[in-house]
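Board notes (copied after class):
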Amino acid sequence: MTENYTYYDGFEGEPEYILCIYDENYITEKFHIWGGYFCDILDIIPPDKNGWTSLAEYYQLSLEFENNYWKVPDIHSALYQLKNIDTSKMYFAKSHEVLEILIKMFTRACENNLTVYIEYL
């Protein structure tokens, strides 16, 4: 399993989101993100014709993460949302780097039929 703390280092004690990719029942990858970067990205995902869906749903509707984690229900839709973010609206410069990593992670998950969970600490 690989873990990436690059975008959480220095923010210890502040909100942390961890994106986990599962292959069957095993975690293959974890990406630790400072809450500021994660929120910067999710804040600018617009609702679609059905309202808040996929990646932005729990965030925008302030739904509780069950047991501090949430399974992304439609990773293809989440990837579409990430690829279509207007990056000019981002507040933090490093959010662009985080977004690129998220796009790569979700692309791998889609191509290999993997599951993505988001943990909130």
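Comment from the instructor: Strands lie at 2-7, 16-23, 26-34, 69-71, 115-120. The longest strand covers residues 26-34.
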